[in-house]
Amino acid sequence: MMRTSPKKARLSVYLEPKLLDALTAHATRRDLSLSLVAEAAIASFLSPDADERREAAMSRRLDRLDRQVARMERDLGISLETLALFIRYWMTVSPPLPEPAAATARAQGAERYEAFVAALGRRLSRGPVFRQEIPDDVPPVPET
Fold it and tell me: What is the largest CA-CA distance in the chain?
């Protein structure tokens, strides 16, 4: 649309009802006309700065997601190391049982497993406490 005079040109647009409701509510809250709010929105959309603002907002979101993924990787690493340490210890201190005692041990193991699952459920319902006990900046210790 070409403007021939310094006077503002008229533009008719069709909006979805929800978008028109949002525009009307925003204009009412700010005590502005619909035309003024629409003009400002269009100017913002067409502004070269708008791309930079969107890019900066996207960059902040990506940074936040990157930090969340890093924490998840750290937590998973802690879980795996804990499990590996426990399995290594358990295999070191647990001698094989003779067959008559093995059946009793399996029955006891099943009961202990059920107790473990119940305790784990209680602990998880309280929230991730163990993960919070481990500091983020623990320096690596050389293995001996």
Answer: 102
Distance of CA 65 to the CA centre of its chain: 6
Residues 6+ positions from 134 with CB-CB distance below 8 Å: 78
What pTM does this model have?
0.43
Rounded to an integer, what distance in angstroms lies between the CA atom of residue 80 and that of residue 101? 31
Please tell me the distance from the alpha carbon of residue 115 to that of residue 119, in angstroms, as a whole number. Answer: 6
Domain ranges of the chain: 17-46, 98-135
CB of 23 within 8 A of CB of 34? yes
Per-residue confidence band for 21, with pLDDT thresholds at 50, 70 and 90: very high
Q: How far, in whole angstroms, is CA 87 from its chain's centroid?
A: 31
Separation between Cα atoms, residue 63 and residue 86, nearest integer Å: 35
